[in-house]
Design brief:
This protein is mostly beta strands. 0% of the residues lie in helices and 58% in strands.
Length: 123
């Protein structure tokens, strides 16, 4: 299973930027999907998650500014970031919890991570 993230870049404070992350591979179920971020010298932290039913959870630092959505048909999650701040600068990682059948046709539940995409908020 692979998660392909896209959409990072440079944005000015107060601006907007969108990220997307598409899952591909031999899974049969995706549960929660979401985004984490890691700034230089800091631990990776939760940004937002969304269940397969569309229930979202946001870090307090991004509530009211970021919106997470998903398209189950495309196995894709989208993060719309508005009113960005310099402290939003970080490498953003998407993740997904899901399940697949292994070679023995057993159900395996795993968490997968994307490769990370840089978001820089600066004037």
């Amino acid at each position: 299973v692979q998660l392909q993230a896209s959409g990072g870049g440079l944005v000015q404070p107060g601006g907007s930027l969108g990220l997307s992350c598409a899952a591909s591979g031999k899974f049969f179920r995706l549960n929660d999907m979401g985004w984490y971020r890691q700034a230089p010298g800091k631990q990776r932290e939760l940004v937002a998650t969304i269940t397969s039913a569309g229930v979202t959870n946001y870090a307090d630092s991004v509530k009211g500014r970021f919106t997470l959505s998903r398209d189950n048909g495309k196995s894709t999650v989208y993060l719309q970031m508005n009113k960005v701040k310099p402290e939003d600068t970080a490498v953003y990682y998407c993740n997904a919890d899901g399940a697949y059948y292994n070679a023995y046709e057993e159900v395996v539940v795993e968490r997968w991570w994307g490769q990370g995409t840089q978001v820089t908020v600066s004037s």
